[in-house]
Amino acid sequence: MNSENFTLSEKIVSSSYIRQGCQARRSHEQLIRHLLEQGKCPEEGWSESTIELFLNELAVMDSNNFLGNCGVGEREGRVASSLVARRHYRLIHGIGRSGDIAAIQPKAAGSSLLNKLTNSVVLDILKLSGVRSAASCFVVPMATGMSLTLCFLTLRHRRPKARYIIWPRIDQKSCFKAMITAGFEPVVVENVLEGDELRTDLEAVERKICELGADNILCVHSTTSCFAPRVPDRLEELATICAKHSIPHIVNNAYGVQSSKCMHLIQQGARVGRIDTFVQSLDKNFMVPVGGAIIAGFDESFIQEISKMYPGRASASPSLDVLITLLTLGTSGYKKLLSERKEIYSFLAEELKSLASAHGERLLHTPHNPISLAMSLDRLQNESDKAVTQLGSMLFTRQVSGARVIPLGKEQTISGHTFRGFMSHSETYPCPYLNAASAVGITREDVTLCIKRLDKCLKTLRKEGNAAKSSSPVPPLSQGLSSQAAAGEESVQVLIKKNNIN
């Protein structure tokens, strides 16, 4: 309804009522105008009616929704199912063009506007979360692993002689396969044990650079968010090394946006040294469906270069999902989620520490990991070799998802490379352990229920272990004596025979 239509409506319904409706409409439009003017996430979240109004306004700007449109091409935004059309708010054309995922589509002004606004709002959130000097970013409809591959492929054009990627070890398959898929050879740098924590071996990184030659190295591929007892890489020191040797630096920040510590490490690394891009997951940081990531960096031209490397158009679904989510939350709502996550991390640590003490275990000391925690399983391992792995399956069948049980000595071969002690980020971590994480969206009820079920599982396993020990066959005393007597008599007979004693 524009002003002319409102004026016409006054001929049908009382003008006072129409003016009131017009004012209500303007309150929605005012919010949309601020978004278009500033390109930032609103302070307060929008209502669903405002978001739907905005998305419908965008949709009618796409050619597939033009009332008189006549499409004779191979891609005209045709959808067979009305359910599918409603699921996507009739934004069917996707984002980008064949040569650039960030390009404007002539047929789809609304979808193109959606894409540009989403990237702008997400950049605002990255700055708000701690990386204030980030210059550019874009949402890509691929998860973290493939998004890292896209970054590596872009660097190949800048460093055509490079064969290697230096990678401080983290036992997560997708980031390793991202390097293999891009056609490079990962150079695995083992972590060093400091107390309970596994930390970056900076000396080993320097040695590998000198050994291989800086020109032969595509980049250093570091990590922030990870499972304890591994902790975020020493980004400031790695960034300094990369700047010193003129080697690009790609950071896997998979679920680090929710952690002020991880984001601070990226900001500081870029300040003192070199970080080219940092990649983060949409689902893990913003509670949207799996399938999207954010590629961000400090050099706008390089981020544009990566976006142009993406072949073809792309799905708009991840962009649509994250924009709806951030408009719903607003910056105040997202900050509240991050604050609650941090509080529950402390609560989870206390509960795990108490439970560990009750079962003769301990909470591993990993203060540099702001999201994940680990509890030793030494005593459980001593009671039964199979008990550790059994605990993992017991938790899963009791609907405790996300908890990881890490046994000792597991081997895993990925693309021809064998990792010893796989899942523990180390060839020789000293004890088996259990992981739990306080990620965005977690509640105190989640923690309480997890601890309750974990406690029951540990008690059950201990009871079974004790029963197994007590049921092992032990010969009766009389049987033991008679066996000894028989053995003694047999020995005497042997001696008599040997010495020809009659």
Show the helix and strand layout:
Layout: H1 3-9, H2 15-38, H3 48-59, H4 82-87, H5 109-128, E1 136-140, H6 144-158, E2 164-168, H7 173-181, E3 185-189, E4 192-194, E5 197-199, H8 202-212, E6 217-223, H9 235-245, E7 249-252, H10 260-272, E8 277-281, H11 282-286, E9 293-297, H12 300-309, H13 317-358, E10 372-376, H14 378-383, H15 387-397, E11 404-406, E12 411-414, E13 417-420, E14 433-437, H16 444-470, H17 477-498
Parallel strand pairs: 2-3, 2-6, 6-7, 7-8
Antiparallel strand pairs: 1-9, 4-5, 8-9, 10-14, 11-14, 12-13
Helix pairs in contact: 1-2, 5-13, 6-7, 8-9, 9-10, 13-16, 15-16
Name its key features.
single chain; 502 residues; alpha/beta; Aspartate Aminotransferase, domain 2; Aspartate Aminotransferase, domain 1; 3 domains; 3-stranded antiparallel beta sheet; 17 helices; 50% helix; 13% strand
Low-confidence stretches: 477-492, 498-502
Please give the order of strands in the largest beta sheet: 1-9-8-7-6-2-3
Distance between the termini: 126 Å
| Shape by Cα distribution | globular
Q: DSSP strand (E) fraction? A: 5-15%
- CATH topology category name of the largest domain: Aspartate Aminotransferase, domain 2
CATH 2nd-level architecture of the largest domain: 3-Layer(aba) Sandwich
Q: What portion of residues is helical? A: 40-55%
Domain count: 3
Q: Helical element count?
A: 17
CATH homologous superfamily assignment of the largest domain: Type I PLP-dependent aspartate aminotransferase-like (Major domain)
CATH class of the largest domain: Alpha Beta
Roughly what is the average pLDDT, rounded to an integer?
A: 92
Annotation, overall tally of beta strands: 14
Give the C-alpha Rg.
Answer: 30 Å
For the sheet with most strands, the description reads: 7 strands, mixed
